[in-house]
Amino acid sequence: EHAAEQHSFEADVSRLLHMMVHSVYSDKDVFLRELISNAADACEKLRYEAISQPGLAADGAPSRILISLDEDKRTLTVEDNGIGMSREELVDALGTIARSGTRAFMERLEAAKANDKAELIGQFGVGFYSSFMVADRVDVVSRPAGQDQAWKWSSDGKGNYTISPVDPADAPARGTRVTLQLMEDAKSYTGKWAVERIIREQSGHVPVPIELVEKAGAEPAKVTDGVALWTKSRSDITKEEYNDFYRGVSGQYDEPLLNVHFRAEGRHEYTALAFVPGSLPFDLFDVERHGRMKLYVKRVFITDDADLLPRYLRFMRGIVDTADLPLNISREMIQESPILAAIRKGVTSRILTALEKQAEGDTENFEKIWELFGAILKEGIYDDFERRTQLLKLARFKTTASGEGHRSLADYVKDMKEGQSAIYYIAGTSLEQLNASPQLEGFRARGIEVLLLTDPVDSFWAPNVQDFEGKSFKSITQGLSDLDKVAGGENKEDRTAKPSDEVNAFVEFARETLKEEVAEVRVSSRLTESAVCLVASEQGPDRQLEKILQGAGR
Ligand code: ADP
Ligand code: MG
């Protein structure tokens, strides 16, 4: 037996560790992701080195990552058959936190504000050290590919580590075994279900298969197969595989209505695989709710909380995988990243383009998508000025002329009456209610189409949109209508005739009687059967928006 040599960490590790444990990662589960991604990296490195030195992987054993749990000993072990580390490499890689410019880094860290600290540490290789969030001792036994001697690195993460040679019989045939002696309050990481869930969630798509040994002596069971579906090309993926993947990523068991799968190259490199669900996710109208797209960096899961899409696409499910961000990126840093902003823009465009294609090519499917998510997409007309026109083109409406189907604004404009200058709409809570409203009478009589808007969001975008193809939007429950200028309708003469003295006398009477209740009483051509109707004034909210605002207690 050799005596273990005593070493000190370079740089003030204990301070850095303390900061990291307490500020960078809010979520302790990430230690496992870090260890798995190191193990996967080691396997990838071996694959690469073996291209020029085939002897390194002479045994021909396929890459794999083995995770073993031992509840009695309270340990979790991550073992790989990758490139391994020599004694020098253990010292360099695990004994030196900052591989270069340590002092400068520590000084910047001292000076940085809390937010930037997370960013600085994120750019910095601290992955392995996250083990010390859950373990009070970490042993790393490693045997480099092509060598006989194995070494053990051991530390409590408080400032010192030891290195000693180990008997080859106690080391992996090749690669690295990292054993965590878990803290008392981290013993849940010896539970099979908990660990399996974390692996699936965070590392389900690392490129090396992961196996789990649930207790000492048990057979390893495969948890993940080591292939990220989205890295394959569209033509190699079956519908069933897409559907399975969708179910995994969305937690829903229906069939998606559409998938958008593409690889972006050029200034930013990323792959996106996004689905339009086949049914309404239950929490869609929760205001607190962000998107559910998962962000991966180099096939390693980072978060599902990054705003990868605008709010009006929050029903989409899927992933974005990029090589352009550092793996240790902190959540705080993600939200501010300009790279992510560029990716978000790119993915949004591709999704809208895919929806446009459906709208043109597969109208039946698009009808389904619109029925489910149209109300959410319409939020974008209000929110996303840049894509307003695009979204207006996508939008489908029930109108006085739509029958069973829907009409687009292009349909509407194409069929506008001679002399008609506006796109007319009426907003309310249901089609029945709207169809019965007296304001529609004059429009019906003249064969003028009116959009029937029944989603709350309609009352917000419609008054705010300048125009569609040069035609303004006009609520028929508001202000004066220019019906008389429009051709068509049966008894046009009557409508334009000057009101008789009796009518004028009645209007005068109504004005006097209702002067506390209404702003104005006037003769209108919008009615054919009803005697009177209420309209809102030209400026300000229309009737439906008035009601919504009153309902909200404003
Ligand atoms: P990073 O992965 O960002 O480089 P880490 O702290 O996670 O930072 O790991 C530090 C270094 O330790 C790695 O770059 C690698 O050289 C080495 N290392 C860690 N785990 C392994 C492993 N399982 N096999 C081989 N090398 C490893
Ligand atoms: Mg790492």
UniProtKB/TrEMBL annotation:
It holds the Pfam family HATPase_c_3. Residues 1-331 are annotated as: A. Residues 332-547 are annotated as: B. Homodimer. Molecular chaperone. Has ATPase activity. HAMAP family: HSP90. This is Chaperone protein HtpG. It comes from Neorhizobium turbinariae.
